[in-house]
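Translate structure to sequence.
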């Protein structure tokens, strides 16, 4: 009887967790944010406790699971509308290699060492740092790499404005001032808070206006 109850709960939580993850949205394991990872660990722990303590009510685990999913969904919706919340929950990408030069300050900030960098470069079939134009450490921990191309300027599009928020660290990277950006926006007859996405590439500023603004 004991083994039957354990098996029954195992199958039940398999179904419950499958449904829970469908509600949380589709993401690969390597793309989970910190919040997603925390929720995943807690749900797995709650399921393990419920299976182990089969004599206790199953709702002692189901109720906190539901609460975690609701919290995760609410925070995800808020982060879609707020870049500040999204930055806190998911973090921000970091430029590790900028125009062929390694940014050691950025590596130190992310606690990302040279062995990590070389390992991920080798994983992408790149033999040396000298072959790389740009490398960006994404919020998922993956490294996006843009190789140098001969006889071609392959500048990576650096985000200058995200959801109306000016990325001042990017302005420093491209050696531009805030007044330069304001002048460029003035020429386009748009205010910064009404810009959904703006990026700098090949000495030019490209922008996408927020279509929700009337």
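Result:
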């Amino acid at each position: 009887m004991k083994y039957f109850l354990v098996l029954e709960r195992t199958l039940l939580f398999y179904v419950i967790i499958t449904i829970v993850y469908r509600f949380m949205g589709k993401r690969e394991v390597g793309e989970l944010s910190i919040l997603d990872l925390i929720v995943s660990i807690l749900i797995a722990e709650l399921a393990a406790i419920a299976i182990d303590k089969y004599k206790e009510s199953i709702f002692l685990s189901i109720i906190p699971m539901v609460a975690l999913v609701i919290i995760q969904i609410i925070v995800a919706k808020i982060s879609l509308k707020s870049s500040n919340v999204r930055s806190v929950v998911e973090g921000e990408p970091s430029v590790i290699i900028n125009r062929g030069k390694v940014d050691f300050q950025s590596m130190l900030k992310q606690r990302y060492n040279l062995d990590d960098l070389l390992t991920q470069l080798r994983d992408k079939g790149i033999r040396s740092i000298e072959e790389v134009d740009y490398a960006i450490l994404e919020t998922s921990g993956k490294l996006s790499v843009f190789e140098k191309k001969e006889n071609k300027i392959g500048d990576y599009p650096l985000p200058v404005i995200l959801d109306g928020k000016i990325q001042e660290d990017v302005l420093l990277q491209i050696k531009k001032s805030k007044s330069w950006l304001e002048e460029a926006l003035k020429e386009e007859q748009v205010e910064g808070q009404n810009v959904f996405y703006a990026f700098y590439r090949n000495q030019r500023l490209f922008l996408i206006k927020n279509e929700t603004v009337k």
